[in-house]
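It is worth pausing here to work through a concrete case rather than discussing structure prediction in the abstract. The textbook approach is simple: state the sequence, then state the predicted structure, then interpret. We follow exactly that order.
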Amino acid sequence: MKEILKLPQQFWSVFSSRNRYIYMEAMLTIYDEYLYNDYFLTKETCIQLIAEHFSDRIVDISADDEDQEADLMEPMASKILNRLIRFTWLKKVEDYSSFKTNIIIPDYSSLFIETIKRLNNPDSDEKDLYIQNVYTNIYSFYYDMKAGLELLKAAMINTARLNRSLQDMLHNMDQFFGALLEKNNYEDLLLEHLNVYVETIVNKKYSLIKTSDNFYIYKNDIKKLLRAIGEDENRLSILKHKMLAEGKKEEDIENEFADTLYEIERGMINMEKRISHIDTEHSKYIRATVSRLEYLLSSDDSLKGNVVALLNLMSRRKDNDLSAQVTNTIQINDPTVISSDSLYKKRGKRKQFEETVEAEVETEEELSREDILRINRNKNRYSKAQIEEFIIDKMEDGIFRTKDHAIQSDEEFELLILAYDYSIRKSSPFHVVPGVKGTITNGKYSYPDMIFEKNSLD
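Step two, the predicted structure:
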């Protein structure tokens, strides 16, 4: 905040001026030339650049004129340059040796011009920003012992820039949704989708995460490297030795190192969440586009489309004349409209769960007397004591293996099944040792090779 307070008061006058867009255009024109001329332009060159830029249209900045100014009669390009100098966006430096006036751009002004430039062309700086830049910086830091903390900080900055780009992409999705409703015919909507949405999202911004430089290709490798860097004491020791020689404190080095790793990890997590949200919004937009296209296609050719158009017309007209005319003249001959299935029905109360269950039970086929007796007989044929006795009597040193005792009768087979079911209960004095060991076949009986083990007394 201290640096912002150092800016001249006149600097902010550009934003309050009604001619601010003219001044910004002139600044961008001068700045582009300024970068490729050793950061050095004469006043005459600046005037020429401004005049050429506005040569195809009439420019009026009289709203910022003052009576006491001496440049009222000067050309428009000179007036614009003088205003920018007066607003301290540009600075004038006299070269008395060559009798020339040079124009320079202060450092604080350059920062604002760069921001305006990015707003004017938002894709220019992001098209060369990839997730592999983050991976390369982290990889180089880990394997190059001469590298300093600057590589990790570069990875942190690139992660933040990628997150900002994804966040902007996510927030700008609503403008594409709004454009859908503004199109009133199929052709315009299709052009809007292909030429605007597809070009902007898929071919430009969306390529950041959907090309061969995919986020998911590098995500796991970056996380592994970050984990290895955080656990490598030798790497941290080398970094400390280097930074201590630069006059930094050991505690500050450790804190800075840990904070940088944390910011990168948090940035990766945020990117993953934002990409997931973008995929969801992308799917929503595609569904909305298809629905809008279907609506526009059916608006004139189907009964449903004509009814929707009529209802829209009635909603826009507040009087009741149109409603009365429609009521007296409309004839509904389509059976799909006059059938009960097409009419709106008030939703009834939800059925209770118990009612649903009872309804399902009633639809089931009733069991016969013999089936009921057979089920009860199988369930209640053996007591817990008989089941426990069947297993415990055959145990040797507290272990019973089914492969050592072949099943010879239906009674033993039923007891073995009931013993396995009984073994998973808390009250059971034994349990089955986990693990599948094969199947035993003995005549008409086939059962698993199990080991019953007696529970230890606590």
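Step three, interpretation. The longest strand covers residues 91-95. Residues 370-454 form one domain.
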